[in-house]
Amino acid sequence: MIDTANKENSLGIAETQIIKLTLPQEGFQLEKGGTLHEIDVAYESYGTINNGKDNVVLICHALTGDAHAAGSSANSEEPDGWWDDMIGPGKGIDTNIHQVICTNILGGCKGTTGPASVNPETGKAYGSSFPKITVADIVEVQRLLLQQLGITKLAALVGGSFGGMQILEWLIRHSEEVERAVIIASAASLTTQALAFDIVGRHAITSDPNWNNGDYYNSNQPIAGLSGARKIAHITYLSQQLMSAKFGREKQTEWMDADADFQQSLENKFGTYFQIESYLEYQGKKFIQRFDANSYLHITLAMDEYDTKERYGSLEKAFEKITSRLLIVSLSGDWLFTRQQSADMVKALVSTGKRVSYFHLEGEAGHDAFLTHIHDLKRIISAFLIQPEREKCTHVHHKIPNKEKLTRFKQILKMIPDNSRVLDLGCGKGSLLNMLRQHHNASGIGVEIEIEALIAALTKGCDVLLEDIDDGLKMIPDKTFDVAVLSETLQTIKRPRVLLQQILRVADKALISFPNFASIGVRTNLLFNGRMPKGKQIPFEWYNTPNIHLFTLADFLDLCEKEEINVESIICKGRGLIENALLALGFKNLGASAVIIHISKKEVAHSDTEHAEPQSNTF
Amino acid sequence: MIDTANKENSLGIAETQIIKLTLPQEGFQLEKGGTLHEIDVAYESYGTINNGKDNVVLICHALTGDAHAAGSSANSEEPDGWWDDMIGPGKGIDTNIHQVICTNILGGCKGTTGPASVNPETGKAYGSSFPKITVADIVEVQRLLLQQLGITKLAALVGGSFGGMQILEWLIRHSEEVERAVIIASAASLTTQALAFDIVGRHAITSDPNWNNGDYYNSNQPIAGLSGARKIAHITYLSQQLMSAKFGREKQTEWMDADADFQQSLENKFGTYFQIESYLEYQGKKFIQRFDANSYLHITLAMDEYDTKERYGSLEKAFEKITSRLLIVSLSGDWLFTRQQSADMVKALVSTGKRVSYFHLEGEAGHDAFLTHIHDLKRIISAFLIQPEREKCTHVHHKIPNKEKLTRFKQILKMIPDNSRVLDLGCGKGSLLNMLRQHHNASGIGVEIEIEALIAALTKGCDVLLEDIDDGLKMIPDKTFDVAVLSETLQTIKRPRVLLQQILRVADKALISFPNFASIGVRTNLLFNGRMPKGKQIPFEWYNTPNIHLFTLADFLDLCEKEEINVESIICKGRGLIENALLALGFKNLGASAVIIHISKKEVAHSDTEHAEPQSNTF
């Protein structure tokens, strides 16, 4: 059966091309002091470059990747590019819109100059004489290639794992040449544990007698060492859960059926029949056929030593000149590049006022999931990359929020000064952020826990962070925003008091809206029915309500008093005749079904702002 | 300065003794078919054996441990036993009460017969001719030693990691000889990931040319391979957090100050200056001095192949004959032996009606924390082990719960039939469980999230499980209990409806007590004060209350109706004259401040039990 749907969005044959870089006479100066006098770069490209030459997406590959990111290689009938699911017509990175380029990195062994290449000075493989390289060297070689192709401005950089580190260095050096950047499952430097695994992997290679200090190209290869290093690394690419689900403690039955001699030799080597053993063995074998031990040593060392923070003093300083818009994605099953490491980058970017969005994708597969489990990742990358196209189009209509919400949002917008930097907590699908940008010339970041809502917000062009507000706004640095908005959310929060403190830590002022549990409707409901109140405002049963901290306007004002929070103003809205009549009479706590309160931090010296209203009429 | 406090609870010099086992003429038959004709066992003992010879605690050591568990070895001034903090006078395992024995395991290299021992048949080291061993073999050798020492009944077995697996096998084979058992950071079989690390470690050894199929005792040792294996394993013993906190990305400054030649050689080998590299190097070097590569191969293989479930069909079947009381402990930072693996053992033990307690200890250190971070572990083990001593003493008085609680507990006890198996959810310090045992001849297990309360309950002799009830009673199998009690807890639960379903999944009947949010006091408070009600029953502020799902008696009965839950009876308690008067008039929902409801699962065919009261008077 021919899968035509698949054929339609396939790129067909894609072949790697090799280009010799035009280098200055003195050669290419490496960061650590070495020089290369010749550099070949292997690359592939998919899709068509536009007239402005500004629709190019550069893919930065991971540790042992190559230029063949998508399509089928000449000798393969099926697509065998390492990210073919992501790149192609109509895919996450859409070759109908973008020209996509992927290069093999410097130091590699798949066409770009590396330790196995011939040293033009000696006519022999570099081996031990190949100079040490850094991430910056890798980036500058990519840039030289682009320049040679006449590309001086990138629509986007996209990459995962070690590719993300290259992107980070790209942005730090040449952000003005990059419109957008997507960094997936990566970090500004490795964790100690990840370093440790790499170190043991390198030891396995360098303690293999065949390694011979790197000069092994005319003799036996250090395959035992390289295979060992790969096995260790491979364990770190999968999550514990995936490994258990995939292999468990299952036995390899073919081996058990094999002849006695083979079994004996397996057992003499303390081999087991576990499937995981044969799987690792297979991964090791496959790897030694396609990769060079010296490349592995050089590239892992470049990765291990990459440390943005150490290099520039702090992430904030490193990111200072970034102008590109960023999308950062971490994966829940990934223990090699952790959520915390992504969050650290996001925090530094928010702190320096950059445009950044962040998604943490659930999924148990592990680090490799950015290659293998990309359903949501595709949608997010597509939403992020296609936006500029969409923004050019004036006919895009987003769903308008319901009337009640719209009224509330309009009221909130009135209270936000022009050009403010706004944090919208529980931003949902980004309606408020979108209205804000259109009407106020203000910039904002939204925080939301619900991923589908957040993808909708990203599609609108909003900058959004996937985070549980209950976790304490960990990605938001102190005093980063002019105004924080918390709309109909406080009652669902586990520790509302802590959240209020956090809000006034990160923003000067806050606008809080909530349902008032003391409105006359609610009170009489409990009095006369003896059941917990329900209704339009509180449409849940007691046992499944997200509203876990019910409170009244009076309760809230009591807390402000206690916490030394200024109440700048209170806007009340009643529902129906009686409540509105009570409001008209000044009985806010009785009359208001819904409330918006403008609060700010009490300064030690009293400010000249409008003060809290007296709280006597909060019956 | 001499630390006398330390001296007082030190064991002083402890020397390893070696004893030759008296074997039958045909030798010791190993499970996998081999035979050993001579077995030496190295062991140490601390404290004095009593006249009944029933106060002995056997310590089962982990993978690379030895018999020197506590005290100072002859050539050391300081205590250097591997678990000296745990074992000694007044310590977690108290040598004033118990005689503690620790043996080096079969296959080891610290005095007990192993691959480096001399094969009596050849007069040379076993090497490649050492037969394959299993956990069962290790256990039977320990037992032979005890028998030879005249010990036929153990007060307890205690061990962590691989030691825990030995204990599990002990219990499956000889539970009648073991009073109690403590299994820490262990499992009934390794995870696939842990297997994978061991496999790569063994490959490192067997691919070292010096290994020579195990016959290396008269030539170069496979130190590169053994060191590599140890480095990999060592990474798995620490948590990612601890490694980051301890080493981060810090550099080893001495090396950087070293002479140029040394630096050059370091760099040629792709070594880094990271502290973690020198730490791993150090761990590898230390290990090759104290351990034998063949022992490492044999013991890790025995560990990897240990699989209680596979051996006996299921954990439940394996545990069928266990009569010992168990304490199982897992550690939060431990990713080598996970919480889930401990929970699986607990579940199977609860399912088969065994006496088991379970603690999950917070702490970021990782697997090795059972050796290095033992503050809470000590207290728990001590509480568990000293109980029999305490039970003999009639003068132990436990703190009596307050009057209100006591009244409630007495009411609940009245509703529990004699000889019931009871699950007390949110058991606190175990007062109800204790009363139950004393007055009802019933057995019970408590579940509680607060560790200090749970240690108090353990001290009273209760069987208790540390678990968040909100997580869905995952450790409790279906239909394991006659009655479940949930006392003043439902309103603090995130998903009360799900919990009710879970409760009736694991128990036939349940007694639920809760504060009624519809009592007249509460209603009038909200009506007249406009603030969320507070008082004796609800003593919290709205923003810090654990009571996140407030509900009324009527609400609860509505839910029972919806969920097809039988309401067998309702006990109401009012507070003050008005409420009690209302109760007398039959107005339960108005009059009851507190309620105990007896519920059961509605059977498809209606049972003959007392049916729910009509709900008309629940105003």
What does this protein structure show overall?
The structure is a homodimer of 619-residue chains. The first copy, chain A, has 619 residues and is of the alpha/beta class. Helix content of chain A is 38%, strand content 17%. Chain A has 23 helices and 21 strands. Chain A has an 8-stranded mixed beta sheet with strand order 1-4-8-5-11-12-13-14, with helices on both faces. Chain A has a 7-stranded mixed beta sheet with strand order 17-16-15-18-19-21-20, with helices on both faces. In chain A, strands 2-3 form a two-stranded antiparallel ribbon. Chain A is elongated, with a radius of gyration of 29 Å. At the A-B interface, helix 4, helix 5, helix 6, helix 9 and helix 10 of A face helix 4, helix 5, helix 6, helix 9 and helix 10 of B.
Computed structural class of chain A? alpha/beta
- How many domains of chain A? The number is 4
* Residues in helix, % of chain A: 25-40%
What gap, in angstroms, lies between the N and C termini of chain A? 74 Å
What's the quaternary structure here? homodimer
CATH architecture annotation of the largest domain in chain A: 3-Layer(aba) Sandwich
Spatial strand order of the main sheet of chain A? 1-4-8-5-11-12-13-14
Name the average pLDDT of chain A. Answer: 90
User: What is the general shape of chain A?
Assistant: elongated
> What is the CA-atom radius of gyration of chain A, in angstroms?
29 Å
